[in-house]
Prior knowledge:
- The protein is an all-alpha fold.
- It is 72% helix and 0% strand.
- The chain is built from four helices and no strands.
- The protein has helices spanning 6-31, 34-39, 41-58, 69-75.
- The longest helix is centred in the first third of the chain and has 26 residues, at 6-31.
- The radius of gyration is 17 Å and the shape is elongated.
Amino acid sequence: MNEITDQHIKDATIEAIYWWNRTENYYHEYFKKIDDMIECPELFNFFTQKVFENFLREYAIRRTISAGYKSVDSLLSPS
């Protein structure tokens, strides 16, 4: 078994930070503004098609819901 060095730990830390910024933080920044986006139909449409759809796909949620944007939009419905 290979020994884990300080360099391995540094490299893994940098990679973890990169992926956190690329995914979790990226989505967090959008989701914390969801109330404002719901109020603007054009912005909400962009969000559902370009951001939320990708979120569902990346986290393997999209494959468990029916096709089309109507089912995706229903996940964000305030009711």
